[in-house]
Amino acid sequence: MKMGILRRVRQRTAPAASHARPSGEPLPAPQQEEQETVVPAHPLNNYVLVILDSCRYDTLMAAAPRTLQALGTIERRWSYASWTAPSHYNLLMGLLPHASPRHVYASEYYKQDFLRYNERLGTQEIEFKSLVPHLYLPTFLKRKLGYRTHALVSLPVLNPATVLNRDFDTFTLMPKHNDMAAMLERMVFSPDYPSFYLLNVGETHYPYALPDEPEDQWPRIHGVHGVFKHLDEMVVGGKLRTEEGGTKFFDQEKLDLLRARQIEVVRYLDRVFERLFDLLPPRTYVTVTADHGELFGEEGYFGHGPVHHDKVYEVPFVEGKLR
Ligand SMILES: [Zn+2]
Q1: Which residues surround ligand 1, an ion (CB under 5 A)?
Q2: Where do the domains of the chain lie?
Q3: Topology of 45-209+218-321 in CATH?
Q4: Ligand 1 centroid to 298 CA: how many Å?
Q5: If you placed Cys at 122, which of 9, 30, 45, 48 could pair as Cys (CB 3.0 to 4.6 Å)?
Q6: d(CA 31, ligand 1 centre) in Å
Q7: Could you read off the pLDDT of 81-108 as tens digits, one per residue?
Q8: Closest CA to 309 of 294, 322, 290, 319
Q9: pLDDT tens-digit series, residues 163-192
Q10: What strands lie across the sheet with 301-303, from one edge to the other?
């Protein structure tokens, strides 16, 4: 008879404290439970969710990333939100960027979308109601499936003091906002338990700088750069105005240059993905997407956040299991 994976995993991750004597000296675990610990009936996949902050769909396609294309077909999808914090909350609810299907009730779409977690995690028992009542993926992964949960984030608006840091075993704001390669050194996988990693990658965020580019060579946009120094994303973006207060394009040549820089960092990141994929153990499922897009002068907009435009919602989406 098939034993439910949730029940089996719960046994597998029962707290060791129940076998401790008052003195703290551990008792040997009963033979039956020892077997459960060593041989899980249905090992779960590790799950790595990579968010390329601000990466436009057409930016990613223009970069033609060979490594990412090996993961699966790169889709054009739509973010639920136009800036980092609400978008990550949504992603961590388990709702990845949507395909904007017509003639479908939202509730039906959510239901179908959550069934995809069975493939991602290597189970058959996940549905939308599995996440009730917390509606938070890290809580579900950690408390119901026995995952170790980790976040490595680049943008300070996602720092560990925010409400997003719930049911993560570790939650780290990286020292630099633009160094995905440094994240790889912090990733640890164990054959004894499944791992979940959220990587919020910042190279694709303004000013689209590679980790080794000196800060004094970053491009400067009047009224934006000083703001970025404080990394307060809420005010990065919006409609650019000329000095006179008009709404003409700010400086399209400069914005074209910025867009070219975002394409260039995706080309660089594709090589970092190659290193990431090399270090991932077997049975690891990877999803790569963006939290929102970016405007490079279309209809007078730059950046993201207080922007209502198709390009701020249009994001790339690719996922698959490598081996
Ligand atoms: Zn963002």
Answers
A1: 53, 84, 291
A2: 45-209+218-321
A3: Alkaline Phosphatase, subunit A (3.40.720)
A4: 18
A5: 45
A6: 49
A7: 999 999 999 999 999 999 999 999 999 9
A8: 294
A9: 999 999 999 999 999 999 999 999 999 999
A10: 237-239, 301-303, 295-296
